Protein 1
Amino acid sequence: MSKWYIEKGDQGDVVLSTRIRLARNLDDFAFPAKLDTAGRNNVNSLIKSVLFENDAKDFSYIEMKDLSRLQAVSLAERHLISPEFATKKDGSALVLSADESVSIMLCEEDHIRLQVMKAGLALEEAFDIADKLDNMLSSKLNYAFDERIGYLTQCPTNLGTAMRASVMLHLPALTRCGQMAR
């Protein structure tokens, strides 16, 4: 199976990749920073059971404590996990699709950090996949949500939709002209 980062997507000469990221927390648990290892493992087990109850054969479940430092850094370099998550061990896990286009970090900064990566410009396609996974999870899990401020996240900058949409661009002319810093 081909990995998303080997593909050349729409407008691939300028847009290298698209990412949709959703942050979610479970209502019945403290944020991961306030949980001990047993609490984080409990959260991970709950989320894992929902993700894999429908025979999710395209996904693998990886406990961060089972990875070497080199393996974790490799995942971060491919933008499948955050650099901070690469240093996590006990009580953190990763759910990864076979083509590595979907990665779900469990007990990173939030209980769930779901991200979908696509080659080129593919905002709608990436959002559709993230939305379907989020809907499947929310149908079985009770998310921390406030009617006034939206999804509750550890970092206040993620409140609301708790979604980030981004594209990585290749802009060689800015570097050549000395304008990249500006």
Protein 2
Amino acid sequence: MSNLLSDRIVKIEKITLKIRRPRLIGRNAKAGIHGDMVTDPVVRLHTESGAVGIGWSRLSREDADALLGKPLSDLFRLPEGALEDGVIIDLPLWDLIARLSDQPLYQLLGARGSREVELYDGSVYIDDLDATDEEAVEIFKDEVQTGHDYGYQNFKIKIGRGGKWMPLQEGQDRDVLVIHTIREAAGPDAKILVDSNNGNVLNMTKEILERCEDVGLFWFEEPFPEDRNFNQPLKEFILKKGYDTLVADGESGPPPPSFFDMVQSGWIDVVQHDFRAKGLTWWKATADMIEPWGAQCAPHCWGSIIERYCHAHFAASVPHFCLQEAAPADLNGVVLDGWEEKNGCLIVPDTPGTGFDLKPDVIEQGVQAEDGFRIENS
């Protein structure tokens, strides 16, 4: 491996991939309409040996200039991962090192998980503010059908209408109606998750759980800002009631300094810090830390399509991965090597690296675009 890390970066390409969703994505508990487009910044690293690594990165032209000509040993070290100067290209680096090692990324990471990574459709947002109850039911039946059309079996529902968008009790009632509608449309075997984006308080959260007992919520995500004075009594309530519902949190940042104390105490079951913002190197170390506590990993990854491939390799590398977030979208411009989606799972391939790239014409158009570039040693 030391010889591989002496390889130098001789060319860097930046492409912004734009992918359209099959429908408009509405509000969550705190933010407005999210739109129907995914904008993914993609970086491709080329080394003097001819290897290529690809992944999500917000690398700027200025930062790219500073990386050109550097040996990989200045940017990356195994088993830890990206060093300080390599964090900005963390995901492309992991792909590159796996390809140089001629092994799939999940094997480089340890291969202790399942290659069948269970997905959930995270695109069920607050799309019904101007609708009657009857109209809302039809809206969300259609959204579940869209998820099914793209192969998803599990669904996460944005709730918290009463915190901002509707009168409190009216919003709570609509949240409950939508949760029951999704359960009925998705079927009895689907995992149903809810996410209030910190838009609830403790008692609102308890009410949702009680009124949706018959749904069997798989997890409750970001019920309120993390606080031991709320998280502990919520967990005690869940245990007293005999619910199997997990508490998932950590996406919105930065979480309080006591966050991992609450995870270790068992008040937060699923850790969700953003996969792109934190990177695979951070997540690898964090997964090792929380495993003895019985906590699970489920990184936040809304807003990206190409991230799912590196993400799924991470999932296949650890035994305590929970579920992977995804959403319906057409993968125009993406080239997959061995990937399958079956029975609501993403099947991680045994091809080198992460097993994806972009089509040549998409790369060429992307580097020529205003927000793209290609730089290389002369």
Protein 3
Amino acid sequence: ASCAQPVAKDAQIGEGVRIGPGVTVGPGAIIGDRARIAAGVHIGAGAIIGARTELRAGVVIEHACSLGQDVLVHANTVIGSDGFGFARDAHRQWIKIYQLGKVHVGDEVEVGAQCSIDRGALEDTRIGHGSKLDNQIQIGHNVVIGDHCALAGCVGIAGSTTLGKRVMAGGGAGILGHLYIADDV
């Protein structure tokens, strides 16, 4: 049995990038200049990591997801996992709906530890520039978070909800799916 290369041969690694032990970088991934990638991080095929972005230990960036410049992602966060996409068939059995979208994270975003940001089902999940997410935040598929939002204390946002700019939520708030929350709420 042969082991795959930890960093794919066609991955593009910028100047001054620091890569810790046990990191894997998939084919076609791009890591921008002066990014810092800590131990045990996985960057999937075709993912893009912006310049000066820092991924702390154990972070997973799934295939085809992108992070902007100057982003900080804390330990054990997963960006781009499948959303909760299931439907019942004629026999009332659950069948998986494949999640074909991506996640795009803007510039100067901070994502806390142990967060989950689901990839979109058909459209993409988006986190706006300058937004700040605390630890243990869950963002469902197709969610759009506007610029400069702040989510703290175990917030969960169900699929296909849009937050405008500068929205704040905290204290275990659960936001239902398919809603639009206006700017400055």
Protein 4
Amino acid sequence: VFGKSKQGKGALIIRGDNTYIEGLECHSIYVPDNNGVCVRLEGKGITLNKVYFHHAQGGLLGSVKGGDIIIESSRFEHLGDGSFFHGVYTLAPSRLFINNSSFLNTRNGGHEIKSRSTHTEITNSVIAASQSRDSRLVDVPNGGTFILRNNILIEGQYSENHDLLSWGVEGVLHSTEKILIEGNTIISDKSRAKLISLARKPKIMRVEGNIVVGSIIDIEEDDN
């Protein structure tokens, strides 16, 4: 699917619930308001398995209707053209689960992943901006549960922000307050970087068992 959008929104507008999409490649989606995405979810819940979304204004825009957004064994790269849009952008009250996937080189100041979901869990994946002018690798602006486990995280020298991650920076709106960053390889090519920006410290926060390459402050050496 490439080069065509519907209703000024994206390539596929999904109004059904719990949709399953497998094996889809999508690219070159552009609309006048700069948020042309491969999948615009307007229903409740979706699973993307083995998809390849690239070189568009965005990959996935979530819904406010809730449900689980599951991304498995997929690749999102070179998204965000002509805007501040993101590779993946989800909304509350959904929950976001990402496993065994890659999010690479979001452009023009966007995040690789921006999640307003109540629960954001990313495992066994690569989130990297080694070549592009992105913002943060993962932005969780309204708090909630944020789990990063067994990933490779790479902040490149061209990233606009010095922090790799954020939690609650646009206001903590979700009742659960938990951050677990465990077993990741975390790399920064900047001369000095910060792991995560916080609106305030959540009730539960653990940063343990990570391998850190580069000068990244606020990571306890005894635990990593």
